[in-house]
Design the sequence.
């Protein structure tokens, strides 16, 4: 089964359920634009007419009330579209969702959250279709075989970063991404500490989370270059045009990464077509699900760029990212949040077997796990559903 091919038997979705979870963030996750003081997750469960389930996850990190809002959108607008219908493929369902929600995106001014619920439903569709076919999602996506996918420890905070990086190295990570954008002195001091602690062989990246304008980004690229960085991520605003990124790439020495905050095939095509952003990082829970992100991955690889899935949530989205990268192939890494997150561990740990900086998936159907709602019960948030 490939995403462009219909299923031999259409799948009728009978139920859509949404679950909101929150776990403490200890320590809080710091970025240049805000601090995450808890770890939210929105899960979507699809159940077909035979009782088979598929699970997906919706991006919901910001704002702090965003998880409950997205879950209500799932129930109010996603559920009526996908339930009671027989779907020939996940792509058919995703394209229908995006088309049916398009006017609502304009009316509400909320294209992001509505794209995100479509992405989470698409993720669950792929899990459902693959489970019914008795195959892993990476194979359903067209992957030829499982292989050791490089991963990196991400989200390393600017407070004592070397300590966390050393702990992740002891777990088997070989690549590490530091949050920057907290002032030149602090950023450089943290990079110095990490390079001294990890040694010259460690792969280091930095993420500015859109902290600078173009002039400041050029200066930052030059001053950080001596630390032998693999890439500089989102140095400027995500809505800066591709030509700005191309100019930035030409004026400073670091490889540029981005894409988690882009939306739509056309926008990704524009950035892939310009030389500036050479590491393309769509987030399967933010836009596109697996269907859209696989399209982007294939275009990026064909253009000679790296496809590196972005993810900083719970375990289902992380596994989806690993399945996407396994199917797409090519150079690059999958992001794994370095900070404690029981919602990630409870869902992803059974198949996250890390060895020398890589994870190789198995042949279990779907994403290879089913969330245990009993284990997750302490983190479940009661969702008020008045009017739904």
Sequence:
């Amino acid at each position: 089964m490939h995403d462009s091919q219909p299923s031999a038997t259409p799948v009728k979705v009978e139920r859509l359920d949404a679950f909101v979870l929150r776990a403490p963030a200890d320590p809080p996750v710091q970025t240049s634009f805000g601090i995450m003081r808890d770890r939210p997750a929105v899960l979507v469960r699809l159940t077909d007419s035979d009782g088979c389930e598929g699970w997906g996850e919706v991006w919901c990190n910001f704002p702090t009330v965003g998880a409950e809002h997205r879950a209500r959108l799932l129930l109010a607008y996603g559920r009526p579209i996908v339930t009671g219908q027989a779907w020939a493929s996940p792509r058919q369902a995703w394209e229908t969702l995006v088309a049916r929600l398009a006017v609502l995106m304009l009316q509400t001014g909320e294209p992001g959250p509505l794209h995100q619920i479509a992405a989470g439903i698409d993720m669950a569709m792929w899990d459902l279709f693959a489970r019914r076919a008795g195959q892993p999602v990476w194979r359903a996506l067209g992957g030829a075989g499982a292989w050791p996918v490089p991963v990196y420890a991400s989200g390393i905070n600017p407070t004592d970063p070397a300590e966390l990086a050393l702990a992740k190295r002891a777990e088997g990570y070989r690549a590490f991404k530091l949050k920057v954008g907290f002032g030149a002195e602090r950023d450089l001091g943290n990079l110095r500490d990490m390079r001294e602690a990890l040694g010259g062989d460690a792969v280091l990246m930095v993420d500015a989370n859109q902290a600078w304008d173009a002039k400041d980004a050029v200066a930052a690229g030059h001053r950080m270059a001596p630390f032998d960085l693999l890439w500089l991520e989102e140095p400027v605003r995500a809505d800066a045009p591709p030509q700005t990124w191309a100019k930035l790439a030409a004026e400073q020495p670091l490889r540029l990464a981005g894409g988690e905050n882009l939306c739509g095939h056309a926008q990704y095509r524009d950035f892939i077509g310009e030389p500036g952003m050479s590491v393309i990082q769509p987030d399967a829970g933010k836009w596109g699900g697996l269907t859209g992100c696989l399209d982007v991955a294939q275009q990026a690889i064909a253009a000679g760029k790296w496809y590196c899935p972005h993810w900083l949530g719970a375990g289902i989205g992380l596994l989806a990212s690993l399945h996407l990268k396994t199917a797409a192939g090519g150079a690059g890494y999958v992001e794994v949040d370095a900070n404690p997150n029981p919602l990630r561990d409870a869902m992803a740990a059974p198949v996250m077997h890390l060895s020398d900086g890589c994870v190789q998936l198995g042949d279990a159907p779907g994403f290879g796990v089913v969330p245990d709602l009993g284990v997750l019960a302490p983190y479940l948030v009661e969702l008020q559903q008045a009017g739904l």
Observations:
- The first strand starts at residue 11 and ends at 31.
